[in-house]
Amino acid sequence: MNHSAVKTHPVTDGVRRALEISLRGVDELLPQEDWTQKLARSEATGVPLRIKLGLDPTAPDIHIGHTVVLNKMRQLQDLGHTVIFLIGDFTTLIGDPSGRNSTRPPLTAEQIKVNAETYREQAYKVLDPSKTELRYNSEWCDKLGARGMIELSAKYTVARMMERNDFHQRFNDGSSISLHEFLYPLLQGYDSVALQSDLELGGTDQKFNLLMGRHLQMEYGQEPQCVLTMPLLVGLDGVNKMSKSKNNYIGITEDANTMFAKVLSISDDLMWDWFTLLSFMSLPEIAALKLEIEGGRNPKDAKVLLAKEITARFHSAAAAEAAEQDFINRSKGGIPDDIPEVQLSGAPVGIGALLKQANLAPSSSEANRLIEGGGVRIDGTVISDKGLKIEAGTFVLQVGKRKFARVTLSA
């Protein structure tokens, strides 16, 4: 039996548009011919395709780099297809070995539950909750039992499993590989069987697992899913992929003013990749905007549009407008309207200790470093003396461009 999309349907202009949206910003779409036929069949029959994204709630740690795949889901959701947001509460018990050189430590059921709830809330900032099918893979994995697990394991060979880069590398390095880690890609693939998915999305590091779903669907007599991988978003530094460890990230729970200012800090070149991967503007709209910039319009105008769109998505349109105004005020040297009020005592206080007590520096030594760099102001005046003692009074303390506190210091 040919397990590809069997019956051929005409590729209309609508199908071509859907394919263009599908391909926007992707790393790979495999096999593209099958996906085109699935889109054509869906248009001809009116039956929406089933599109799956699985995330393991390993940590409640989501930044906008993680939303690149969610954005693609939203684009396909807006085409009328069924989007399945799958929380891997069962597979998290194993731990995804993708790209790792050691066995991932297991989480408790309680940790998984808390993280899963956070993932759901954060995913719904991008996806339309009313059109999203929320599932947990414990629904079918728990029911497999020992017999089902043995039958599933028979569907794949150890030799094929060892072709996977991280397993191959660890084996050659003499690092340990636990048997249960072989179960992870099998169970992720089995999710596609249970959900009868037409397309599975993931990052580039998930390609092996995504193709496993395709293989197992054929083993179980289903039409195999297509596989779509998205590139990893480059962070604020313009060099490395976005990550908390590199401190080049924008957390999706950060306040609106910080989020807006961080987007504006990216380079003009990086901005266009971000437009492709993070914006919901159409490709023709982005192309037209790029032409305007190349024709002499200030690149900052485009960056402001992107910053407002991203800020509005995770906060609100009003918050994005306020963040823009806040940024303008600060760039003019102005003090924002809404800054923390801090009451302190013990005057006179050394400037380093004061910065720490006002939560504007994590330590006195870091405070001294900020002073040396010219990043500390009192009522707009740059402070250069690390030994300065501050007398009682009320004043605005500023660190860098974005950290302020109105301090009332008493004796």
Automatic annotation (TrEMBL):
Enzyme class, broadest EC rank: ligase
Record SMART domains: S4
Main location: cytoplasm
TM segment ranges: none
Location in or out of the cell: Cytoplasm
Residue ranges of domain RNA-binding S4 in the record: 349-410
Molecular function GO terms recorded: ATP binding; RNA binding; tyrosine-tRNA ligase activity
Keywords from the named record: Aminoacyl-tRNA synthetase, ATP-binding, Cytoplasm, Ligase, Nucleotide-binding, Protein biosynthesis, RNA-binding
Pfam families: S4, tRNA-synt_1b
E.C. no: 6.1.1.1
Domain of life: Bacteria
Motif ('HIGH' region): 57-66
Gene Ontology cellular component annotations, sorted alphabetically: cytosol
BP GO terms, sorted: tyrosyl-tRNA aminoacylation
Amino acids binding ATP: K244
Chain positions of motif 'KMSKS' region: 241-245
Reaction equations catalysed: tRNA(Tyr) + L-tyrosine + ATP = L-tyrosyl-tRNA(Tyr) + AMP + diphosphate + H(+)
Function field: Catalyzes the attachment of tyrosine to tRNA(Tyr) in a two-step reaction: tyrosine is first activated by ATP to form Tyr-AMP and then transferred to the acceptor end of tRNA(Tyr).
Family to which the UniProt record says this protein belongs: Belongs to the class-I aminoacyl-tRNA synthetase family. TyrS type 2 subfamily.
Complexes and interactors: Homodimer.
Identification of the protein by name: Tyrosine--tRNA ligase
Organism: Diaphorobacter ruginosibacter
Gene designation per UniProt: tyrS
